[in-house]
């Protein structure tokens, strides 16, 4: 209704985009949020080939779909992280290079700058603004519990590192007129409201930086995901619709996860297909209406217990039944209209 | 009643033991759990001076108090940790040395072995078993959220490192006939039921290794702290009575803590004086009765909002009102006794 | 299924009836509850023009819709109220007149009598009973919190005033064989179960007076809206299906509303589109079945955050999925039928 | 999707099977669970007439339906029960005979043996395994509250009686290669997890005996119906989808039922049409997926307040929307697939 | 304060009364409720020895204690029960006799008549009314779940049997001016509000019959124990203070108890020392105040996990801290008193 | 401990102050909050008699008590109210005069000015600051539910009236250096957080005006009483400790009270003796500590079901057990202190 419902393609990167788009149409979506991995959206190609963005857009448009966002979660992660072997598996070879941490971080930063430039080119092809969303990484995530005692200075240093690395990137976003939305998430510089505020403060509040709102990373932690929208209303640059379950009773592995896998019955929480978790999307829609958010509702589908095609279809239906157009005026008045 | 109520001296290490013991008596406790820092219990002295343990015990006995446990949280932490500057502030200079990580870990391991030896000496002075409790550190705590994707092999390597470092230590415990109780806690090799099981498995289930049960680290995570007692009934080597509050509604900083300090109103959870948090101690007492635990109930008092002397006194009263002697026989039968 | 689902036209009085009826059909409803304002149902015309009711009915019937109820909330309100300028905006000019309070109340009372007469005429055109529902006003609503201390005599006087003003009106209802259903609601003589009982008692239990049941005014107050049905089973003359939300956590403005508008995020409660609030309609349907209520389920749609056309359509679908035919016999028996 | 959705015909035994099958098709089901009463499935005929099973199957297949299970609740009940006049109304005349308790029990046992034989014949006609589900009765149900004091010996005697009577029956099931699923239920030898374990133990864990899982008998009692699946994962031989409501607040008649009928508003609990009670079917589906259950989801429809045809149709739709195919692999991995 | 706090001696019948009374004083009670078993109160002696009651009273008075009630739970149970071997263990030999069921029931009935007579004699010695409380048994308890289908006639027959057996007993109570209070309890003719109403109705509402209110038998069943007081306000002849725990989460054995013992961790519910269960005694005290109950609050102490002497003392303290004198007048008025 | 615990004398105005003070000592309080009615504190006398304040203070001091606050709820109420006969019963004759509304309001305003002057005189006698707390009345309370529709202009007019009447009064408070604390309460210009903010805004934020914080008026309404403290931390001029109960389940009369009396069982909410209601005082104490509130905790005792002397004593004990001294420093640090 009110807003396009898109599918984030990141969990489908094993499929070529063209094949995926046919499924997306069949599932009932209005468009896609393109992952910058797999063959979905290739930043290097977009830099090299002046027709790349136009061709991608033609392919999408031909299916009757739209696009408003591209996603750079994997490369973005490497910008601030303490790099180790885990990163090799999520980065393109040319960014991993020889794996020296500072080199990886710098190459990742350059790639995110190019992602802004590519977004601008895609925007020109599509004819409206394209936003970039993704991760930032963090040099201080491992200090998540304060023992041995963590000093305020150590935390401050982490935010300064973040600012030092991202300000030059955001300069390119400003040049291109593109906005960056961090998906607030564990392992990132921001993972709740308090740390999101610290991140905004570290950047001096510059407007190129905002958020890819995703409630699934807040609910199980005990973070007020509706308050997030109200507090950062003018920085909600994109929205992920993703559900998460947490148990009404305590379990064998809690929020920290017990070093066990998603889908294990001993866990306190797990991602779930939309409508089968605990997130109260009704309040989210009302809060998004209250801040005037008009962008896509992008389904990031993840459920370790369900067939993904079954899930992607039901999730689309769920979001379309939930979303609604805000009222034109207040209602009480109407009662007495004559 | 049923069990001695002791005060863990770790949070009072700024006071000399003798001065603290007078307060302990005044607060109403039956004894102390001695921290191996401050001047409370000095492992090096216990190794050097054959009268040290006897003298400590005389001082305690003279006040009418008892002792059943010594605690090596700070040094134990360094055995498996990825060492950084935070550890300097919690370690004695001779263990920190020049701060080279592997050297620190090895010196810490030797100190924990000596702690077992010292516990044996103290036991001889006191005339009953003395247990050692504390931390272990962990080389994999920073992998607490699985992104970038963490492989099972990375987790397994962490448990293997733990076993490699602690098995030689536990050999000394076995030689001395002393038991080690890990306080299951974030930043340690075990922080919930699932990871505690993994730790036990990594050591092949050897009996020198068990737990210093402390519900305050489980409740806010969503871990079933009563189930912990039933599952590890024969490895509950010591018990901390410590309370924790978590909010009935979501907050700005969740379980991961938002990189903000204890006592900040934006937090979802915080430690609290006993009886003022959410832990259901009634169920804990009944579970401890069911496994036949007869050791001390040791108050680890921590509440960033309350004067500690006020708190230590009310906590002692709280535990004494709560604890009770189990029944001799079942009760229904009695109804019809004639 | 079991019962017709109607739309109350009061919130749509800005649209001419004919235009509205087309929408009503499109939304999926079985009929309408006609507001006696806008051009929906004009009591004066019904009194003057002998064909008015027949013409209205023809218009409705032609669309394939039904009608069982007409509503006089606005004029009814003026019968007992302490009149002030607010009433001018909800009353027709001829009833407001010069605005002298007692004159307004008397003219309103005469109009409600005529509404009974008009209902009878409409019933003759339609071929089945038509009920009148609406408000009563109250001279004691402003005494809602008992400070400065309110005496029982002051309350009794309010109920006596109510009886004195409504008994003559109800005499006309009895003459015409029409029933009046008060919508129990804040600002009326009855706003919960206790005050509804007092209102019934004040009228000596006469049967012309009953209720237009609407759970949305009870739930947020903490009033047992299912109990209401069981207690007043033989006086449930009509049913409004209207949902309301109240917060699981306290807010800045509570039940009394903080003198702020509907739709403000600081409020504890707000009306919502059916199925998006807290009312448990399942229990309501079962209770209505238990008292044998066979009349319409009339959607009074109000949600200050949603486009009303979107809402009216989803509300109709919601009620139709919810409602069901009662069982013919008990079920356990069937198991063993042979 | 993943599993066939069937209707248990026990509550429809007043209708001839052929007539019922047409309704079953119309309601949307994939098949039936055949009651061994009414004319639905006649064990005596199946023993006598070599074409009976083939004919039944032809009738079912012609409607496009399937069958996986036959049900012997009524006769099975008589095997262990203390027989009284209530049993006369649920048993065929030839099994009731002259009503002498031990004779009734023996004749019922023989009939259940024949039911295994008949299941085998039906399986041959259909071409896949047919399971038998039903009740067992119990000689100790009346000892449900331990006053006057019940001794462990009295309980043990009840389980021994159960084993003595059912082992010979299960020998026939083993001979025929058929499995028996007890519907764990009040009045049976097993009515919760603890008594189900006792029943399994009494039979030495033989595999011919398992369960017809039905959550509706557990939820209102306070029994963990999801844990049941995990604990008895390899003995879940069949699944009933049946919902039950229990009140969030205390009532006039509690779990023991106050000797009043289903459907009485004073009751704490009652069976309800699927989706209108309290059972969390989402967790059930996930638990069934985790144990690899591939059999039918059989709707046992019972709701004393609703028309059964309305209910059977909505229940089928509910189960089909709920059920889903499990995931092929874990999901986190997919995020980084390239 | 407002009411005497007594200890019910039934669970202490292994101790001679004199020895028990010393403990009762030490625990802090104001008096005792005397069990008619052990040597506490012997009905036969009271009938034979004209000084028996006087002597008992002297013994109690000398300790500074009071008595208001005698209890005949064990013999009362046999009046309506289907007698089996369990009853032998709870009955005196002269009542059990040869164990023929009807003979046992008749002898039990005679003994309850004598209990009324003995109560009258004790009342004369003490100088105020003495009430008798206890059980009634039931011929229909085993029909607690309606399968095989139970007919209304079977239930009616059970209540008629109750009336036939108890009316002659209550005639003696009326002659002696003594009241009988049934402890509403599973296995009795009444076990919740609905069945209590049926019992009152079966006796035509005669006033000799009322209730020994005990919330512990209601809470875990889901029965509204505060409503019980309001509904039967004029029949609350005595009050037991007894607590019960039921789990916030489902367990392996539910309300029906899984044929396992009290104290087993798998149970959903268990009796607990006062203040350690779930009963909301605050609401009970307010309800008792509202009906003007002035009798004793009698602690029936039962907790299978706690030493009974520890428990009896803490229970007395709990009740004394809880109970309070009602207000003389309403409070709002006072605010403005001048 | 940390703060004096006082008793507000308003509910005891039927007793002469001297007699009351003896009780206050016996109940265990540290001081009193003096009502400006009864003979407790007479503003006229304080204006006339230069020794009055000194004498009052001598009387209080002699009992070993303190005083920090005087209360003008009754006269304050008349300043903005729409005056009717209810006010006659709460006002001194000289302020009621002939009862003409505007005259009453003006005389009340003058009396509140004198109360500031009297507070200053009492402060000089006592030797520390004395604050005035009380009500303000409201000309718009009767508009509490917005039907007939209330316009923003009507609400604004109410706040303007409040400012016009209270600014001149507050000028006197400023002259005298005394602060006024409004008890936010239904029937006042402020009754929740939203309306309290409006009141502060209406006065331009002048510091002479703040709040007498009382959680009992917020909790049952659904207003966040802990948030109130944080939001208005620098305007919490005084604190009432008063408890209120609200039902976990809906009732016959909701928050609006059904025009029935306090103490009626049909009500959803009622005031209760401290510790017997629903207010979470633990969070209040922590919030008061966080804003550095050092003033008295003043018990306003009200419970329509309890004897007031019983209640006043238990309330004092409750508050003293609850209150605590804040921590000097954060606690985590202490763990590692050496």
Describe the protein's architecture and organization.
- The structure is a homohexamer of 338-residue chains.
- Chain A is α/β, with parallel strands linked by helices and 338 residues long.
- The first copy, chain A, is 42% helix and 13% strand.
- Chain A contains 13 helices and ten strands.
- Chain A has helices at residues 17-27, 43-48, 52-62, 73-80, 85-88, 93-96, 101-126, 152-176, 193-202, 225-231, 281-291, 308-322, 332-335; strands spanning 5-8, 31-35, 66-71, 131-134, 180-182, 209-213, 236-241, 243-246, 269-272, 297-299.
- Chain A has an eight-stranded parallel barrel, surrounded by five helices.
- In chain A, strand 4 (131-134), helix 8 (152-176) and strand 5 form a beta-alpha-beta unit.
- In chain A, helix 10 (225-231) packs parallel to helix 11.
- The model of chain A is unreliable at 330-334 (pLDDT under 50).
- Chains in contact: A-B, A-C, A-D, A-F, B-D, B-E, B-F, C-D, C-E, C-F, D-E, E-F.
- At the C-E interface, helix 13 of C face helix 13 of E.
Spatial separation of the terminal alpha carbons of chain A: 30 Å
Main sheet properties of chain A: 8 strands, parallel, barrel
Summarize the largest interface: chains and residue counts: C-F, 61 and 61 residues
Helix and strand composition category of chain A:
alpha/beta
In round numbers, the mean pLDDT of chain A is 95
What portion of residues of chain A belong to β-strands? 5-15%
Shape of chain A: globular
Query: What's the tally of helices of chain A?
Result: 13
Oligomer: homohexamer
The residue fraction in helices of chain A comes out at: 40-55%
Q: N-to-C SSE series of chain A?
A: EHEHHEHHHHEHEHEHEEEHEHH
Low-confidence stretches of chain A: 330-334
The tally of strands of chain A reads: 10
Q: Provide the gyration radius of chain A in Å.
A: 20 Å
Strand order of the largest sheet of chain A: 1-2-3-4-5-6-7-10
């Amino acid at each position: 209704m009110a807003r396009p419902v898109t599918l984030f393609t990141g969990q489908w990167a094993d499929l070529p985009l063209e094949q995926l788009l046919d499924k997306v149409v069949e599932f009932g979506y209005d468009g896609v949020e393109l992952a910058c991995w797999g063959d979905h959206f290739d930043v290097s190609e977009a830099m090299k080939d002046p027709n790349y963005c136009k061709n991608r857009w033609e392919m999408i448009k031909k299916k009757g779909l739209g696009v408003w966002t591209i996603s750079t979660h994997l490369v973005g992660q490497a910008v601030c992280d303490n790099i180790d072997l885990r990163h090799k598996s999520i980065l393109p070879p040319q960014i991993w290079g020889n794996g020296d941490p500072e080199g990886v971080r710098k190459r990742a930063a350059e790639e995110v700058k190019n992602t802004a430039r590519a977004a601008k080119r895609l925007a020109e092809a599509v004819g409206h603004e394209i936003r970039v969303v993704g991760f930032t990484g963090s040099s201080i995530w491992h200090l998540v519990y304060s023992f041995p005692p963590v000093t305020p200075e150590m935390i401050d240093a982490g935010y300064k590192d973040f600012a030092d690395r991202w300000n030059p990137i955001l300069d390119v976003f400003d040049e291109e007129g593109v906005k960056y939305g961090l998906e607030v998430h564990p392992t990132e510089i921001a993972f709740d409201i308090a740390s999101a505020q610290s991140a905004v403060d570290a950047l001096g509040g510059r407007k190129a930086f905002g958020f890819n709102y995703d409630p699934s990373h807040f609910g199980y932690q005990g973070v007020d995901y509706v308050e997030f929208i109200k507090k950062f209303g003018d920085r909600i640059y994109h929205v992920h619709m993703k559900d998460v379950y947490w148990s009404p009773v305590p379990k064998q592995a809690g929020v920290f996860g017990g070093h066990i896998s998603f889908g294990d019955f001993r866990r306190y929480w797990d991602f779930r297909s939309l409508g089968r978790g605990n997130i109260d999307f009704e309040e989210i829609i009302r809060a998004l209406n209250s801040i005037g958010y008009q962008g896509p509702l992008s389904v990031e589908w993840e459920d370790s217990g369900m067939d993904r095609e079954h899930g992607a279809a039901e999730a689309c239906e769920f979001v379309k039944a939930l979303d609604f157009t805000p009222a034109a005026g207040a209602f009480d008045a109407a009662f007495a209209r004559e």
